[in-house]
Design goal:
The complex is a heterodimer. Helices cover about 90% and strands about 0% of the residues of chain A. Chain A has one helix and no strands. In chain B, α1 packs antiparallel against α7 and α2 runs parallel beside α7. Classes of the chains: A mainly alpha, B mainly alpha. The interface between A and B is large, with 30 and 42 residues.
Chain lengths: ~50, ~260
């Protein structure tokens, strides 16, 4: 059977990149959510 | 006048069941933060080790050559696609029946990761199918039921995100997750129940694996990496949902600690 290394690259490289992208995306979402929550609550407390 | 009565073994001061104390977003936040961090590290280390063993150390397959290496991403992704859906069904029903919002939040946090693993299983499967079967896709039972799983994930995400009321969204999502979970055994047993182009399981609990030790080691490492990735991503997303939906409670906990 001929060497199908290209298929391995095309299948696995985007898959692994997507897993890393998902990891970064959820961490950024958490960071943004925390910052927004703290800012919102700080504004409420300042108003009181 | 009708009065609420307690069961004979309980008193008004009966503490809640032990495991439900993590249903508090504040307690969950503390536990999930350290657990997610550990899982990210495990996912990275196991993933790197698995890629090294699978793509560099393991020899080429006698019949398929190099292309079999797609297995090291395809199989863990396919396993996680099924497990994540079962976990969604479990947490969604727990959240619905016991009115635990953290459980419903966990179900919701699992869905995007599960959908990603399903899409990866289909993508890598198509690229494995072309050189080995001569086709990208066939409508056989395994492939079709996996595609239905992807549609169920997308349907669950769309349904839950489209309802503003959290409780109603959790109920509707739980119903869909429960019905959709029936598809998971169909995926798993499809290669036994029907005559499919997709091969049967190479690994089972009842018989010796039909692959070389190095291949098995790489597959084991990649499976651990996918498990850890799924747990870490889900916990992190659930934490983000908590911060978005209950900012006051979590900020108060952070301030007091």
């Amino acid at each position: 059977m001929s060497d199908h290394s290209l298929f391995v690259w095309v299948a696995c490289a985007p898959a692994l990149v997507l897993l890393v992208v998902e990891a970064v995306a959820v961490c950024l979402r958490l960071r943004r959510a925390r910052a927004a929550a703290v800012a919102e609550v700080a504004k409420e407390w300042a108003a009181e | 006048m009708r009065r609420a009565t307690l069961p004979p073994h309980a008193t008004a001061a009966t503490p809640p069941a032990r495991w439900t104390r993590f249903a508090s977003p504040a307690r969950f936040e503390t536990l999930a933060a350290s657990l997610a961090r550990a899982c990210w590290v495990v996912a990275l280390l196991a993933g790197l080790a698995g890629l090294y063993v699978g793509f560099i150390v393991a020899p080429a397959d006698a019949t398929q050559g190099e292309v079999y290496r797609i297995l090291f991403v395809h199989v863990p992704a396919a396993w996680m696609s099924m497990l994540c859906y079962l976990a969604i069904a479990f947490w969604a029903v727990v959240g619905w029946v016991m009115k635990l919002r953290m459980a419903s939040r966990l179900a919701r946090a699992l869905a995007p990761s599960g959908a990603l693993y399903t899409a990866l299983a289909l993508w890598t499967g198509a690229l494995w199918g072309q050189p080995t079967w001569g086709t990208w896709w066939v409508w056989d039972a395994r492939l079709t039921s996996e595609l239905i799983l992807l549609l169920l994930y997308l349907g669950y995400i769309a349904l839950v995100e489209s309802i503003d009321d959290d409780r109603r969204a959790a109920q509707a999502g739980a119903l869909l997750a429960l019905v959709g979970a029936l598809n998971v055994p169909v995926i798993y047993f499809s290669v036994r129940w029907w005559n499919t182009l997709h091969q049967g399981a190479s690994i089972s609990l009842t018989s010796a694996p039909s692959m070389a030790q190095t291949m098995l080691l790489a597959l084991g490492l990649m499976t651990i990496a996918f498990w850890a990735h799924a747990i870490a991503a889900t916990l992190t997303r659930a934490r983000a949902l908590s911060w978005e939906q209950e900012p006051e409670a979590l900020v108060a906990v952070k301030v007091s600690s």
